[in-house]
Design a protein that fits this description.
The protein has 248 residues and is an alpha+beta fold. It has 7 helices and 11 strands. It has a 6-stranded mixed β-sheet with strand order 6-7-8-9-10-11. The protein has a 5-stranded mixed barrel with strand order 1-2-3-5-4. The protein starts with a helix and ends in a 20-residue tail after the last strand.
């Protein structure tokens, strides 16, 4: 099994951004300071404001959330899911694919080799500590058999990760994948192949995301199961102290 099945998923998660934004109504907020009584100073759409949350939040962290507000009342944050550090840490990496480039990459015979060559070239020409660190982290992910691909769609920064594996006992081939998306939230899943039959399982953080993906699933042509859960983690997150362990 190759990874062209991921390409089909990329088409769905990157399609109809206006519809996704209108249906799911997700926002990304940075928690600047806890003010007490469940109130927080947050950064939303480059504006600093005070918001209320029933869930305890961590200063300096970023969250996906749904925001509601009635006239003259403090905005309410709900359905909060912490955004992983990998999304924040790679935000300014020069290597960011657009959707067309990403699809071309996933259609290539050996995308890992293509990305490795690009990263090594970028590492050798790094002009800042941040660029060197970001590139090193992407190489470290690749060394750990996980492809981490930064990409941009509709002006929003996103991350796609995948890892291929084979189960000798069941004789099945699997692709684990993870995506962090501004408009859809976190998505993880599993693509499996058995006797030429392809199955796809998706885990999403929000019920509205599930509805959006279900409405666009017909074009996949595979058996698809979607589950809602808040326990979605990246496949790989680098440890800054492990950068020197990279083997080129």
């Amino acid at each position: 099994m190759n990874i062209t099945q991921l390409n089909a998923l990329v088409k769905i998660i990157s399609s109809n951004p206006t519809d996704a934004k209108a249906l799911i109504k997700l926002a990304s907020v940075d928690v600047l300071k806890a003010l007490g009584d469940g109130k927080y100073s947050i950064l939303l759409n480059n504006k600093t404001l005070t918001a209320q949350s029933q869930k305890q939040l961590t200063e300096g962290s970023r969250y996906w959330t749904q925001v509601s507000q009635t006239k003259n009342e403090t905005p309410q944050l709900s359905s909060l899911i912490k955004i992983p550090l990998v999304l924040k840490n790679l935000q300014n990496t020069p290597l960011q694919y657009n959707i067309r480039e990403l699809q071309t990459l996933l259609n290539s015979p050996k995308p890992e080799n293509i990305v490795k060559i690009q990263l090594l070239e970028q590492l050798s020409n790094a002009s800042s500590k941040e660029e060197f660190t970001n590139t090193s982290n992407l190489l470290l992910s690749l060394q750990n058999q996980t492809m981490t691909i930064p990409f941009n769609y509709n002006g929003l920064f996103c991350i796609l990760q995948y890892k291929k594996r084979y189960n000798n006992k069941s004789k099945k081939t699997f692709i684990d994948f993870y995506a962090a998306l501004e408009l859809l939230g976190p998505i993880s899943g599993l693509i499996s192949l058995e006797d030429s039959h392809i199955g796809i399982e998706l885990n999403v953080g929000y019920e509205k995301t599930k509805q959006f993906l279900k409405a666009n699933m017909d074009s996949l042509g595979y058996d698809l199961v979607i589950t809602t859960t808040t326990n979605i983690e990246p496949i790989f997150e680098s440890n800054p102290n492990a950068i020197l362990d990279i083997c080129i």
